[in-house]
């Protein structure tokens, strides 16, 4: 068990967060029969200019229709006094500002709700021909982690759900970004956090449905696909110049009828030790990157040195299935803010408390989820309500994924 209490922090030391919502949005042209009138909500003329709802959308280009959808959502949010912008329109306004064609500089994207396009979103398999569908991603502004700001997010979700017909299918995800707010996301914090995630990755996977875990190109696991499993050693210059070496090795294993996924070249305890031996955030980023053509479920690229983005110093959690359910999102957000807070406060704890924290990880890094599962982890983190919530959800959900043991032995092959 973690044996020290998390301390209350001042307002300017609160964590920061942001959420990315993905969904498909349905609309119809005026004069078209509504196939589901009992659903209510606005369905007509979302992909045409607001001032000409009677216009035939087929006279517009794909880009124009997509922009109109974004601007329609922006107008809906602004009507309810939420700051919002279309990404496409914002990019055009920035160019106009630089060219002197706009009197007022556009607001930065991180202080307002951003409506975007995400090409990875797919349209639903049923009813796909009944509507005109559009791929939409909506991002919150950067927010301090507080009950008020969580309620702010829920109010926007309520507006969207009551206004539009949205479809959250298996191609959609919900991504959460968490940072240390106005404070530096230090190397010690990052090592503590990635130690927690690496140790309890299998337990945290139990939250998600099968399609978010297995063979999802956007959420591959650290233990199976990150560089840390391939003898990446802190202090050494790791080169990714030969990007074909891993694929060639996989092809060779297939020819020899060996397992497709390559076993880690060192034990999980050695990998855990390597995390705490790292000497820079750039090393940590390289450890938790994959040379394969996949995206990992945990993204720490925004913490690289030098920073790729001057404002977004966050870790991104990508596993969660798309949803507009406030309770599900809040539970997920609470878990990750708690993990980041544990990592942060451990970084400034006493040597004895740091030793207890490391021992806690070492004691559990080789556990199967049958021995130390999700509920036990959440209780250890002091998240009693989340432990109850996910225990009940897994008991009632017919598609709850089975407990998953490590895919590999701890020996090299």
Automatic annotation (TrEMBL):
Q: Which InterPro entries match?
A: Amidoligase_2
Q: Name one Pfam family in it.
A: Amidoligase_2
Q: What is this protein called?
A: Amidoligase enzyme
């Amino acid at each position: 068990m973690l044996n020290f209490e998390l301390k209350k922090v001042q307002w300017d030391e609160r964590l920061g967060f942001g959420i990315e919502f993905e969904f498909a949005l349905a609309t119809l042209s005026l004069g078209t029969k509504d196939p589901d009138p009992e659903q209510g909500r606005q369905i007509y003329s979302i992909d045409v200019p607001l001032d000409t709802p009677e216009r035939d959308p087929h006279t517009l280009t794909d880009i124009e229709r997509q922009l109109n959808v974004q601007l329609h959502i922006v107008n809906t949010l602004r009507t309810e006094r939420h700051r919002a912008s279309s990404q496409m329109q914002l990019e055009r306004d920035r160019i106009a500002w630089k060219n002197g064609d706009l009197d007022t500089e556009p607001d930065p994207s991180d202080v307002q709700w951003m409506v975007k396009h995400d090409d990875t979103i797919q349209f639903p398999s049923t009813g796909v021909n009944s509507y005109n569908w559009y791929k939409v991603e909506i991002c919150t502004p950067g927010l301090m982690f507080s009950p008020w700001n969580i309620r702010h997010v829920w109010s926007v979700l309520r507006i969207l759900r009551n206004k539009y017909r949205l479809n959250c299918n298996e191609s959609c995800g919900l991504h959460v970004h968490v940072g240390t707010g106005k404070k530096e996301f230090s190397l010690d914090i990052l090592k503590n956090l990635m130690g927690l995630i690496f140790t309890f990755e299998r337990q945290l996977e139990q939250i998600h449905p099968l399609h978010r875990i297995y063979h999802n190109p956007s959420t591959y696991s650290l233990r199976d696909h990150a560089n840390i499993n391939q003898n990446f050693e802190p202090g050494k210059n790791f080169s990714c110049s030969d990007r074909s070496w891993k694929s060639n090795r996989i092809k060779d294993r297939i020819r020899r009828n060996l397992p497709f996924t390559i076993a880690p070249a060192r034990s999980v305890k050695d990998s855990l030790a390597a995390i705490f031996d790292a000497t820079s955030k750039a090393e940590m980023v390289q450890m938790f990157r994959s040379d394969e053509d996949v995206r990992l479920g945990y993204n720490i690229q925004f913490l690289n040195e030098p920073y790729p983005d001057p404002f977004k110093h966050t870790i991104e959690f990508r596993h969660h299935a798309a949803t507009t359910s406030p309770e599900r999102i809040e539970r997920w957000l609470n878990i990750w803010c708690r993990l980041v807070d544990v990592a942060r406060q451990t970084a400034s704890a006493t040597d004895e408390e740091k030793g207890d924290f490391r021992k806690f990880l070492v004691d559990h890094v080789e556990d199967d989820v049958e021995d130390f599962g999700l509920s036990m982890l959440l209780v250890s983190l002091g998240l009693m309500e989340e432990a109850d919530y996910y225990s009940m959800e897994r008991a009632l959900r017919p598609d709850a994924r089975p407990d998953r043991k490590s895919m590999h032995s701890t020996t090299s092959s």
